[in-house]
Fold:
Amino acid sequence: MSPAATRRLTTAQALVRFLAAQHTERDGVRHRLIAGTWGIFGHGNVAGVGQALVEYADVMPYHQGRSEQAMVHAAVGHARQLNRLSAQAVTTSIGPGATNLVTGAALATVNRLPVLLLPGDYFASHATDPLLQQLEHPVEADVSVNDTLRPVSRYFDRVTRPEALIASALRAMRVLTDPAETGAVTLALPQDVQAEAYDWPEEFFADRVWRVRRPAPDPVELAEAVRAVRAAGRPLIVVGGGVHHSEAEQALKSLVDATGIPVASTQAGKGSLRHDHPADLGGIGHTGTTVSDDLARTADLVIGVGTRYSDFTTASGTLFQHPDVRFLNLNITAFDAHKLAARTLVCDARAGLTALTDALSGHRMDAAYETEYRTGKARWDEAVQAAFRADDDSAVPTQTQVLGALDAVVGDEDVVINAAGSLPGDLHKLWRARSPRQYHLEYGYSCMGYEIPAALGVQQAAPGTPVWALVGDGTYLMNPTEIVTAVQENLPVKLVLVQNHGYASIGGLSESVGAERFGTDYRHRVADGSFTGAPLPVDLAANAASLGMDVLRAKTVRELREALTTARAATRPTCVYVETAPAQAAPPAEAWWDVPVAEVSARKAATDARAQYERAVADRRHHL
Ligand SMILES: Cc1ncc(C[n+]2csc(CCOP(=O)(O)OP(=O)(O)O)c2C)c(N)n1
Ligand SMILES: [Mg+2]
Structure:
């Protein structure tokens, strides 16, 4: 190829052609970087990116979505399933189509998952201002609504001339494939520029491979880390999503098998060790297990691996109570490694864990410590059994019995997706993850409406794998639209729809913070103005059926088991609809979570809750 060779294409055609030629590579395995493009067309992208997608339909798969936010969720599900080695793009029109991306972009960036956003933008020429859907800023003429994507993106550019795409597209790929920086990447595309032709250097379209690096630990940091681990009497490993992103599960197991150090997991890290490994203590923090939280309170060294230490993990700064507790953070992102004034090990999780295992050769926990946590784990296993067990097959199931029924039906390969409501807490405490990819909890943004579209992306990344989206009724109502897309794309995703007539999780929270469950039940308004009438006569099962799903209504524990078994084998999108009994069967929280309570109020519920709040907040520590 002569360096001088050029090809005359529109900016949008050049972008699509370029994206189709990008690849990632890690450990010798190659993936397409942009596996496909989701899109909803309007005047801001139909003639530009839309035209380019039909021109290059042979090299760039296109998926039609129903809402822009949901398309981003689908892309995020896909990226997470493939450990961030492959992403998808999302193209939108201008204005409302573009701003509908903001929630999805924030979710991607919070969870450090790559997605390429291609919102249309106003004319770079200003020739037709104000364009349909243009928000005119009277003072700053270069501002568009797409600027709302800046704070939620890890890279943002507005491509105001065709040739500017060359540098910008390369930078965008760098960020998408950088394990420390990845998240939402936005290339805003003025609609006139999308359609404008340019003589592109042929080299721009050549196959390109982005190596996803595995930085090794710094020798000085490693030596200090090893000294700290050897000196610790009660070390506890806390694993986060970074273990999965790095595919470091085997390296973690090797370290744990060699040393006997126990492992507790955040929502994103759960499944890093199989649930039946003797050192796997399950979830940690506000939604953690008794054994994890007991160990966390008494640990003298907390070894964070790939975790952001969210407030759920640290119980809002109250969990780690050993007077001399110290932290050692292995993280590819220096920003996270430095949290809690930790000793840092800034490197890839797999590389760091392997180096630690080698350097700790011969080091083993006291037998008494291992006995202590194994006993605690056995006790917790009994609590799980009790929450799952349903003695009466003909009764309406509780929510934890729904999880028990699902636990009995799934295999090692099934993926279970959830993000918001009361299910995340129950799942974090109770779910027995049997493989690294099984437990798919989006709890960085805990975004209602993530589950169904994410299931589509996961299913695209893992054809043939049973993929379950678990949603509450409130979550379902917020974003059921991608059911239609599952039908259209023949994706046999499975939906477990848990009906409890409102926001049960927030109802419980509301009660505990003195807000009296206000505004959390789905009930008719009555004469005094309150929502305390009969439950609303909605039929969400009929709704799911109307969108094209096969629907199985389960009224009892027995029917639920049968329905889940049928759904697992189904080859069409299938919904299991279950109304749950109100009984609270999940074990209570072991650790606190900071939700500030009214300091003054005329209502007893609030003043009582405030007194309790002040007692809890007194336990908060600064780790310095
Ligand atoms: C988009 C979004 N809006 C609001 C919230 C706050 N929120 C968290 S859980 C929840 C209620 C969820 O209701 P449902 O899905 O029915 O689950 P349940 O609590 O009944 O288990 C709300 C409103 C959120 N997480 N995401
Ligand atoms: Mg609900």
